[in-house]
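To whoever picks this up:

The nightly regression suite flagged Class I SAM-dependent methyltransferase as changed. Nothing in the input moved, so I suspect the structure step. Input below, exactly as stored in the fixture:
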Amino acid sequence: MTAIDGNTLEGVSATTLWTLHNRGSESKRSDGVIRDPWAVTLLDAIDYDYRRFGKPNQSHGLRARAFDDATAGYLRAHPGASVVALAEGLQTSFWRLDRLGVADEVSWYSVDLPPVMALREQLLPRDDRIVELAQSALDRSWMDRVDASRGVFITAEGLLMYLEPDDVLDLLRDCAARFPGGQMMFDSIPHWLSRRTLKGLRLSDRYVTPPMPFALTADEGVALPGRIPGVRAARDIAMPRGRGLFNVLFWPPLDRLVFHRRNRPSITLLAFGG
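Regenerated output under the current build:
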């Protein structure tokens, strides 16, 4: 495969190379927390100085596993449902789920900005189950394309923290109103980390993360049914445990400590009424 220049991605779009670096590097390890062959292929095919992101870690591989588990569970319960991957970036969830045998009848809507979608088109295989939508997740016209007749599962993996709080709440409200009976899953960062990014969070001496103005604790996520019309239930999803420090950080008994629960990343699964 001819090397593709990753420097075409800038700003928030470039963060997909950060997450790819972590997932692909984990997949190359014999003891990696995720098996993601397409992430390895993309990592090797894209010409980019990944050292800008510092040393790779397990965080995005573990997060991807959590999203895979929940998406697979929904598809097993709703064969032929639609999955909408908002700001999908260079995620390769579709192919991991296909290997699990749960995506045979899925309609998969891949939503992201044109530069990212152009990379996906160059690097990833075509599949009749995938509908590619080159647009912002905040452009609600993607909703008009989704077949909701057999259920809808919306993922916003690594997206909402980069949006303004009002935009996040409006998006959640609109998804709940448009897709009753569906579900939506997203991850959040704690407030202390959001504040750090607003001041400039360095991953290395050559890379500063984009600002992440939206933060949500696990308990704030669980409380969303009381804040957003149409959200019937919300559940905090445990992060899989990894190696070493990542094994300790996500040890379930730690969540009994209020300080830990308030200051860790969180993943929230919403169920819409209907």
